[in-house]
Amino acid sequence: MLYNLVMNEYLTISETAKLLKKSTKTLRRWDEEGKLTAIREPISNYRVYLKSDVENLFAEFLQIDVPETISNFVKPNHEYKVLELFAGAGGLAVGMEKAGLKCVALNELDKFACATLRKNRPHWNVLEGDIKKFNFNEYANQVDVVTGGFPCQAFSYAGKRLGLEDARGTLFYEFARAVKEVNPPICIGENVRGLLSHDGGKTLQGMISVLDEIGYNVVPVQVLKAIHYKVPQKRERLILVGIRKDIDIPYEYPKPHHKIFNLSDALKKGELYDCKVPQSGGAKYPETKKAVLDLVPPKGYWRDLPIDIQKEFMGASFYLGGGKTGMARRIGWDEPCLTLTCSPAQKQTERCHPDETRPFTVREYARIQTFPDDWEFAGSLAQQYKQIGNAVPVNLAKELGYSIIQFLNHYYKTKEDVN
Ligand SMILES: C[S@@+](CC[C@H](N)C(=O)[O-])C[C@H]1O[C@@H](n2cnc3c(N)ncnc32)[C@H](O)[C@@H]1O
What we know:
This protein is of the alpha/beta class. The chain is 33% helix and 13% strand. The protein folds into 3 domains: 2-61, Multidrug-efflux Transporter Regulator, Chain: A, Domain 2 (Orthogonal Bundle), CATH 1.10.1660.10; 81-260 and 394-418, Rossmann fold, CATH 3.40.50; 263-390, Alpha-Beta Complex (DNA Methylase, Chain A, domain 2), CATH 3.90.120.10.
């Protein structure tokens, strides 16, 4: 049943080609360019497209100029409480707070990320340390939603179906254990798109079966594109929503917005921010890399370099084929930024500033992730970049927060009606 629901989220390559009236060759090129990315279907491992991605592209072709009437905003009818696990520097937590949810506790291992949380929200209850050392029984039936971006690890399978105890030793186990202890109406896991195909889809299926065992039905998994949620960045997050089995209320993902924001919206005064990005420290490229990137125009990448420099810069990758459109990339003002990584000068994932040959500064990074300008980050420059690069974009989290509030309003209304 769950498997079918998940399966229905995909289209095969030939279905997609037919729908969009394009050849499979064009689709392959689009895949390389990142315009429409195929993924591995978790069970069969076939290359497929997410139905929602194809539908969005379809709407673009038809040039459906739908006025931006979409709003996911909804006011909470009660004070809803969140327990946020693997909280990092608070991307998800700040977004939830902006939506109107209240963080009652946040767990995080990294001391710099904890310092960031405390610096900005001295009243937040930050539980610093390894999640394994905490038990959450004191929050039993006191919290409305448990959230967490657990790092993804493979399971070792003893039997056919993964149970909670078989998952022991992984961080997903800790997430599921917390959910079991707290018993909230809804829980939300977030992860990278790669979880879909991790260990041939077995990791995700294992997570779904663990949640099933502890009493939660999993809503068909979706990968949300941040660009559809007021984030000027092509980042994607996989969302895993569990609904407690005694609750028969549908959960709906936040509706995607039509308007897509770009780098200029992130760094200049406009609809997203009412002033230009504040100045701050930032990393630098080594001289040799800077000399190469000086030759790349805005929106260009390694293919825009003279052929001898391409070969030298790319090394063995030059001969490996594939688009590698993220290498030696200079972002343009009129496009969303490519996904930010945890380290801005990292090899093979350069995202150079449009006008200057340098990585984005810390405050520019924070804006591309839609953090407010007054959200400060603790630790060294490298620690700050890491925290920002790890975060769920705040605006995406806010929209997700509205979808949780919508669900909880409905849940409590139904409960009140019955009583
Ligand atoms: C992807 S990040 C989460 C980002 C966060 N959701 C945000 O939006 O900013 C995962 C976090 O899990 C934390 N983590 C890893 N292992 C942990 C453990 N054993 N206990 C608690 N936190 C852990 C990492 O330090 C990291 O900050």
